[in-house]
Structure formats: C-alpha cells, structure tokens
C-alpha cells in the first residue's frame, strides 16, 4: 500500500532531539497564517488537533495531521517531511535548534492514487490508538 507521508533521516534525528526534551509530540500541517504552510511540531499533551483534521501517518512514534481543507489541496501528493537550516515556526518546537521542518512533495502516480482512494485517511475524531492525543469537538 502506498503511503501519504515519509520523512528524512535528518527529520528523525531532529525529532528524537525534540522528543528527549518535550516527550510525546504531534505534528500538524496547516495552511496557517503566521507560519504559512510549514509543518509544526508541538507537545502532544498541549496541542488540540481539529476533529476534522486528517491523520497521514507517523514520524517515528509521533502522529502527523493535516487540516481538512489543506488535505483537499495536497491529497494527490506524497508528503516528505525534511529539515533545512533556518528558523522554525515561532510556535513550533524546533525553533531554537537553528533548523526548521519543511514539507517537500511528489505527485502520486495514477496507480498509487487509485490505491489510496480505496483507503481514505482517518479524521482525528476517528483516531483512538494514539496515547495522549487531544482533539477539538
């Protein structure tokens, strides 16, 4: 089965560093205002995921969600979470590291997209297997 999300080795290294300091994490790809559409990283026990946000997968053991309206723009692409030098989002946990998360993407092949259409992503309200996840009603 094709996946909607992957991440680089550099991403895993930075996530491990952030986890060591902050514990369980959650990622959210928004279409945001302040930080644009950068993937944001938060302590899992402090961030509420929107009940309609879509679950795309895990970065290590940490869930990654995308805003429902953004998913409609990105549903044809495989998201690759990477790390580059620079300042992270002002609310995202990687900010002090001198690095920031970056979403790269590639368009799914017709075969991949057809396969993924058979198993649409779960919404945050349908997720019950992630410990400590908080959602809005």
Topology:
Blueprint: E1 5-7, H1 9-22, E2 25-29, E3 39-43, E4 48-49, E5 54-59, E6 62-66, H2 68-74, E7 77-85, E8 99-107, H3 110-117, E9 134-135
Parallel strand pairs: 1-7, 2-6, 4-9
Antiparallel strand pairs: 2-3, 5-6, 7-8
Kindly describe this structure.
- Helix content is 21%, strand content 34%.
- The model has no long low-confidence stretch (mean pLDDT 89).
- It has 137 residues and is of the alpha/beta class.
- The chain has one domain (5-119): Sandwich (Hypothetical Protein Aq_1857, Chain: A).
- It has 3 helices and 9 strands; from the N terminus they run βαβββββαββαβ.
- The strands form 3 sheets. A 4-stranded mixed sheet has the order 3-2-6-5. Strands 1-7-8 form a 3-stranded mixed sheet.
- Strand 5 and strand 6 (62-66) form a beta hairpin.
- The chain has helices at residues 9-22, 68-74, 110-117, and strands at residues 5-7, 25-29, 39-43, 48-49, 54-59, 62-66, 77-85, 99-107, 134-135.
- The protein is globular, with a radius of gyration of 14 Å.
DSSP summary, beta strand count: 9
- Number of DSSP helices? 3
CATH evolutionary superfamily: HesB-like domain
Contiguous low-pLDDT stretches (5 residues minimum) are none
User: Overall 3D geometry?
Assistant: globular
Task: Provide tags for this entry.
Hypothetical Protein Aq_1857, Chain: A, 9 strands, 4-stranded mixed sheet, 137 residues, alpha/beta, 3-stranded mixed sheet
């Amino acid at each position: 089965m094709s996946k909607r999300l992957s991440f680089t080795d550099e991403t895993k290294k930075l996530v491990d560093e952030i986890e060591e300091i902050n514990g369980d994490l959650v990622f959210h790809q928004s279409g945001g205002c302040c930080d644009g559409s950068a993937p944001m990283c938060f302590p899992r026990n402090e961030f509420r995921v929107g009940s309609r946000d879509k679950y795309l997968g895990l970065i290590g053991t940490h869930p990654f969600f995308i805003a429902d309206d953004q998913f409609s723009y990105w549903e044809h692409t495989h998201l690759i979470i990477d790390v580059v030098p620079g300042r992270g989002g002002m609310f995202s946990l990687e900010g002090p590291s001198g690095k920031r998360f970056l979403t790269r993407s590639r368009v799914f092949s017709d075969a991949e997209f057809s396969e993924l259409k058979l198993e649409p992503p779960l919404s945050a309200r349908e997720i019950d297997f992630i410990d400590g996840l908080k959602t809005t009603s």
